[in-house]
Amino acid sequence: MLEHAVAFLVRAYYAYTLAGCLFAILFVIRGVQMVDVQARGAGVGFRLLIFPGVIAFWPLLLRRWFEADGEAPAERNAHR
Amino acid sequence: MSHRYAGISWNPQKRAYDLMVAAGVVLYLVTFLALSSLLHPAATAETLLIRGFGSCAFLLLNVVLCIGPLCRLDSRYLPLLYNRRHLGVTTFLLGMVHGAFSLFQLHTLGDSDPLISLFTANRNYQSLADFPFQPLGFLALLILFLMSATSHDFWLRNLTPRVWKSLHMLVYAAYGLLVAHVTLGLLQSERSPWLVAAMGTSLALVLSLHVAAARKERELDDSTPKAQEENYVKVCAVSEIPEKCAKLVSLRGERVAIFKFDGKISALSNVCRHQNGPLGEGRIIDGCVTCPWHGFQYQPESGAAPEPFTEKVSTFRTKLVDGCVWLDPHPLPPGTYIEPSRIGRS
Ligand code: HEM
Ligand code: FES
Known about the structure:
The structure holds two protein chains of two kinds. By secondary structure, chain A is mainly alpha-helical. Chain A is built from three helices and no strands. Helices cover about 70% and strands about 0% of the residues of chain A. Chain A is elongated, with a radius of gyration of 16 Å. Chain B folds into two domains: about 10-220, Four Helix Bundle (Hemerythrin (Met), subunit A), CATH 1.20.120; about 230-340, Rieske [2Fe-2S] iron-sulphur domain (Rieske Iron-sulfur Protein). In chain B, about 50% of the residues lie in helices and about 15% in strands.
């Protein structure tokens, strides 16, 4: 019983992480500057630094990317 | 306050800070490995590495958790806070080396997946004494990962400050998990009682510093104004405010920083837009209120950051009567210009 539950959760975790890795490659190259204007023209260092977090939060960023609609998002107040 | 993200905005202080942290970590590891290989000649190198990295990570986490309350109690500790994020990331990296070594050492020999083995090799989940302590370390490591991975300002903005703050509050959950992980691990391997005592001491230190800091904040929030007149309340004497610094007052749960500079008085919200840093503990540098945490700046008259930045905090009306500052506790919309009260004209 425990074995099955754990095996299921661990596989789900691997699948989520793998999907996240694939998404993150596209996101740091193309998506990030559509979601956040401050990322326009940002360097490789910044893109690598956010990579692990993109793997973790990929569903959220996928939604943000869709909502950004290819258009530049309206300039928001930087904090809040 | 960057307009375009950079990987890490390096400056000499950050370099010095990181160099010191790296030197401390290396010194700790070398000392630990040398001493423990003398004390436990039978232990394998892998075991010593696991213990060295694990204890270094846990020690650093205790330091990270003490910095916050220490700074609230005494502003001389502020330099420690300056680059606390890098300390957090270092903690995660050390914990990851420890966890990966353990996983490799103990869970890659059987035919089941190492992570499945981690959760199922020891099934005494009902027992306290034999409780599987390793999964607790894994869960803590997951939290430390989420925090390190989101420590760049990009995440503060894109997760929204509220979510980001809640996520980073999980550090206390990680700390609880690790206290259990370490205590159970030490008890189960029947190591020296001194180690368990050291563990208890660090826990007591972290808890008591947090209680002391919370008590100090409560005192401030409870301090009631001395007198009231129309909309204004009397808050303090002008002479109580050091030049180019602020006096912090709390009115209806709202903290207001009252700054004195160049013969003028201006009042601002105490809460920095960046990460809620205490503006009232900052100073006026180049004519701007400068947050003690990461240096965001605001003009004291308007609460607005200087061009080209866009952050704004609330301002408050003040007046001076007989050398005392009176404050209208209603916050004005962030960025509202208020003519400062002039000292000596009242
Ligand atoms: C996947 C995650 C983890 C696994 C599998 C794991 C595994 C272990 C194991 C097997 C031990 C016993 C070592 C021994 O007695 O020789 C241990 C002890 C310890 N762990 Fe972890 N751990 C993990 C995460 C962490 C993290 C994230 C931290 C701290 C930030 C940590 C801190 C410690 C400490 C301080 C000890 C006691 C060291 C000592 O005995 O001297 N662990 N861990
Ligand atoms: S909290 Fe970071 S600059 Fe104020």
